[in-house]
Amino acid sequence: MLRSSLGLLRTYATRTELSKIRNIGIIAHIDAGKTTTTERMLYYSGKINRIGNVDQGDTITDFLPQEKSRGITIQSAAISFKWQKEFKINLIDTPGHADFTFEVIRALKVLDGCVTILDAVAGVEAQTEKVWRQSKTLPKICFINKMDRMGAGYSRTVKELIVKMKTRVALINAPFFKHDPKTQEQIFEGVIDVVNMKTLKWSLEDPDKIEVSDIEKSNEQIFEQLTSCRASLIETLGEYDEELVEHFLDEAEGDYLKIPAAFLKGSIRKATLNRFVTPILCGASFKNIGVQPLLDAIVDYLPSPIEVPYPELNDSNLPITIDSKNGALINRNRNLCVSLAFKVITDPIRGIMVFIRVYSGILNSGSTVFNSTTGEKFKIGKLVLMHADVHEEVNSLHTGEIGVMTGSSIAQRISTGDTVISHSLKKDGLKSLDRKKELPLKINPITVPPPVFSVTIEPRTLGNRSSMEDSLNTLVTEDPSLQITKDEETGQTILSGMGELHLEIAKYKLINELHAAVEIGKVRVSNKETLMESTSSNTISTDAGLRFTISVIPISERPPLPNENWISLGSDNNYLIMEQHEIYDPVKNWKFQMPYGALVNALTSSSIVALYKGGKVAGYPLYDCAVKVHGNWELPLDIQNPTEILSLSRSLVLKVLSSLEETNFAVLEPVMSLEVIVAQKDMGAVLQDLTGARDANILSIDDEHELNGSATGDSNIEFLSVAQNQFLPPDMTMKIAELGNEGGHMKVIRARVPLKSMVAYTNKFRSLTQGRGSFHMAYYGMGKVGND
């Protein structure tokens, strides 16, 4: 349903040039102001005519009921808008909560650049570090938000960023304040535009009013900051850009203020695209300050689709180039359209909707497409552009665009991470494509992190079981980081997710949106089992001519061999290993009617089911294992139906697993990376609790404001030096930080701890620190139960 705040949808009648497209994501720690900033971007671009706020639950991108009631982003939302008339920005607002990290993972797979939002009061927080690492291959700009808050520290935050994220910075603007004689406080009023040498001052009464002024020498304080910021910016860029150095010495005669803004922007852009620097801007989104310069920076410094590295292909020998007009050109075929499905949702009106990014060619509405992941061919319906929860129909999606496929035929045929192949010119031109090289193509694989919490799901009556299973399938299709397993002994259905909040949201949707009549149990930690040693190989054959030899191995035992093809089973770090056949090559020498992809899909499905059935200790699903199909298998030449392969291979995997004794299996539990920030006077009590009641393994204890603690590595030493030499405006919070909290230094405790011991830790931690500390957990891996 259209909302009045969205106004009329802008239809892009003509295709936007690739060089004018920006595919960006907003990433940050929870409550840094991502959605608030996004809302202001939409307002100033003209996309909406009224500014919504998170607290009122009326923002465009947070449209789910749970997002409105909780005031947090739960699922990533895509929206497109124009800026400076000629640029088209495709923006994805991502969640900040750690439980929804998969939303960030899959969004990053289709983005070309990122805007990282930082809280000027909190600085660089733990989740910020995590999403920064997840997006390490993408150019970024940083927006230091909440500069209007008490305790905001621009320079302190920049310094933390340099050292913790190991990046050089380019100060695009810096804050300036007005002294209030009544309250004796500094009021954030605007920014110093370092590149254009202006001051920008926003009106608190009128969000559309900006006062732009030249910086006069008579304003000594601001002029001195401008000069110092420009000097530091040019010296930093000079380490990368020799052309800038020559211009500075020859044309500008050694005067930092004489380098033209356009020339400086070009240098910043080159350094940003090569991830040498991170441009820094600041503002206060809630007060509507600083958002327009951020939008300018997005188009000035972040890449277009033709300025990014080649997408990751499964065939490293397939030639790929970047064409300035058509984007990625794969296998020198201009008619080859390759898209990545990165998200699936169910719309109450349109049904299944698949979000895609087009990497090559043109995807047309009504085309026949091929899912190279599943081997299925089918016809799609209409294509739409998404504006949060509002749809705009289009005839085609071009290279570099992010849109949505619809149509009843796509249900159950496309999942997150699938590659979609089509012919750009013909409705059904798949036969014209290279069947050996182009149709098997897969692009930018998406890895699903393993779930760590589980709940049992039971139908209220036997008659509700079918509808319960349908609802669960819908839930998992939309969010693959949720997993469904069945306990073979009890018959219970188990739903697993990334955290307690993740499961709470899933339960809400299951009951209130999908209307499943179910009973849901208590949250528990998701344990797994693994193999301690490989099984012996076992062979099974049939009179019809089917023959397989299969073994199961722990994959930590050895790396892949040259004659093996490893196929991920999608979760639990499990794989199918297809050993190279003694005779038949799937590309050069394939004589069977059944495609090789269909054979692999059948073996994949049977392996998933068999490994999910679990080990012999407690029946937990197997983790970190691989089903190896040896290269002496046999098939009838005329085989077409994979059903017999499914049942045969599944029973064989179960047979080889049953040959092992219980002692060959080990129980695993989720282990978390823990970072605790606590005052020195509270550290003893926190450490005692961690090492005693929590069974934590302490890795390090550092001073928070020693800039990343013990800087023993070359990289740490380098960026400590960069931080010390970087000019930063005066910042009182840096001096306060040096004094620590209430006269005592803040300490950072890093540890690894079993997840089961951290359930309901929040209340205990608040009691130990009187609410003065903070902690953050992230999934580290699976560890043997009882191991330190």
Please describe what this structure looks like:
- It contains 17 helices and 38 strands.
- The radius of gyration is 28 Å and the shape is globular.
- α6 crosses α7.
- The protein folds into five domains: 4-301, Rossmann fold (3-Layer(aba) Sandwich), CATH 3.40.50; 320-432, Translation factors (Elongation Factor Tu (Ef-tu), domain 3); 453-516, Elongation Factor G (Translational Gtpase), domain 3 (Alpha-Beta Plaits), CATH 3.30.70.870; 536-659, Ribosomal Protein S5, domain 2 (2-Layer Sandwich), CATH 3.30.230; 668-784, Alpha-Beta Plaits (2-Layer Sandwich), CATH 3.30.70.240.
- With 788 residues, it is α+β, with helices and mostly antiparallel strands.
Q: Could you describe the largest sheet, including whether it forms a barrel?
A: 8 strands, antiparallel
Q: End-to-end distance, in Å?
A: 54 Å
Number of strands: 38
Annotated CATH homologous superfamily of the largest domain = P-loop containing nucleotide triphosphate hydrolases
Rg to the nearest angstrom?
28 Å
Strand order of the largest sheet: 18-17-23-14-15-22-19-20
What is the helix fraction of residues, given as a range?
Answer: 25-40%
What is the third-level CATH name, the topology of the largest domain? Rossmann fold
**Mean pLDDT metric:** 86
Counting helices, strands and paired strands, the structural category is alpha+beta
Q: Tell me what the CATH architecture of the largest domain is.
A: 3-Layer(aba) Sandwich
